[in-house]
Every structure is written in C-alpha cells, then in structure tokens.
Specification:
Mean pLDDT: 94
Strand content: 15-25%
Helix content: 55-70%
Distance between the termini: 28 Å
Number of helices: 4
Number of domains: 1
Strand order of the largest sheet: 1-3-2
CATH architecture: Orthogonal Bundle
Number of strands: 3
Low-confidence stretches: none
CATH topology: Arc Repressor Mutant, subunit A
Radius of gyration: 15 Å
Structural class: alpha+beta
C-alpha cells in the first residue's frame, strides 16, 4: 500500500522513538509493525531522513551495522520527540474527521 503524503515523517519519528536505527532498519520496522501493509522505498526514505535531520528532529552518525557495513544510524532527539507528539495529535484529529465523513449517512 502506498503511504499517504505527509505521513512518512510521522512513521519515521515513531520508529525512532523505540530505538536508534539505520535507514533500512527504519523501513523494515515500519513494514513489520504494519504487518506488511506499508512499504517505504529507499527513494522516499532517504530524502525524508535528510529532511528530518535538517529540521533538527533527528540526529545521524556513522557506525558499523550488525553485518559490519558502514551505515548511518539515526536517533530521535528532544525536538523530534516534541514534534512526534504534535504529529500524533494531528493524525488523531485527521483520522477522526475522516471517520466521521466516511460514516455519515449522506
């Protein structure tokens, strides 16, 4: 399933709330938690990670991955935690409004 525009940041921030991880680990986590429903492709993921880093919500540093390959690991910082809380509030309001619209009788 294609990810709705504007939701990738929320998904990435949420994945990083659980633990620091590298890009492919983030994509794998999203895929796992959504039971395979959502697939984040590298062409979307890596520009989003750079954007979030530029906004000051995540921090990245190079390290060796579990298979001894060089990978950039990302961590959610204080500003990112605050932004995640805001994104969650916005998402809940949006999904409530969509549900009301879809469930209305006409």
């Amino acid at each position: 399933m294609e990810i709705l525009q504007g939701t990738l940041d929320l998904l990435i921030l949420r994945a990083l709330e659980l633990a620091p991880m590298h890009g492919i680990g983030i994509a794998d986590r999203i895929h796992q938690v959504t039971h395979g429903t959502l697939v984040v492709k590298p062409g979307s993921l890596f520009p989003a990670l750079r954007r979030l880093e530029q906004k000051g919500w995540i921090e990245g540093q190079w390290a060796l991955s579990e298979n001894n390959r060089r990978a950039r690991y990302y961590t959610l910082n204080r500003a990112g935690r605050s932004q995640l809380a805001e994104e969650k509030r916005n998402w809940r309001r949006m999904t409530s409004a969509m549900n009301w619209m879809l469930e209305s009788e006409g």
